[in-house]
Amino acid sequence: MNQRLLIILVVAILISVGMHLYSVNKITAFVRNKKGVIRSRIDLSELKEVINTNMKLAVVYIIFYIAFFIITALFAVTGWFYQAILTWFLFGIITLPVGLIGKHYENKIKSLRIESDDKEVGRIFDTYLVQWKEARWKLPA
Fold it and tell me: CA–CA separation, 28 vs 109, rounded Å?
């Protein structure tokens, strides 16, 4: 494999895995801290920051992914077609499990219990989950 492509691949994998680990760490810390329960609007405020981090990293990852595609496509066009395809294959093989693990941790947020006398807490939580599915930089204010 072309040395430049190998360096690009390693950097791309490290960045991708690093972003996923950061997001998983934020989610894990929040769920552990709250013991799986949302009790107040303060908890929702903290949850919003966790979700916003996850959403921002997803947007950054998409931009990064497009840049990675363009760079490897340029290598493919300049005669390194098979190496570029191998680079994409290796990137996918390595980052797919990391993404699936990230989804597992996102589901921990989605399965938080609501234990609050304030009925708005549950409604706001549900709204956050719906908005989290949308492509955006962060949850609305």
Answer: 9
Question: Please, which pLDDT band fits residue 127 given cuts at 50, 70 and 90?
Answer: very high
As given in the structure block, the two tokens for residue 78 are: 């300049």
Condensed to tens digits (0 to 9), the pLDDT of residues 55-99 reads: 999 888 888 888 888 998 998 899 888 888 998 899 989 889 988
Q: Which amino acid is at 42?
A: I
Angle between helices 119-132 and 41-77 (to 10 degrees): 0
C-beta separation of 105 from 28 below 8 A = yes
Please state the separation of Cα 51 from the chain's center in Å.
10
- Whole-angstrom Cα distance, residue 86 to residue 1? 8
Token readout for 17 is: 């895995």
- Cα–Cα distance for residue pair 79/67, rounded to 1 Å: 19
Q: Residue 28: which residues within 8 A CB-CB, separation 6 or more?
A: 105, 108
Question: SS3 of 4, please?
Answer: helix
Residues above pLDDT 70, as percent of the chain:
99
Alpha-carbon span 118 to 133, nearest angstrom: 25
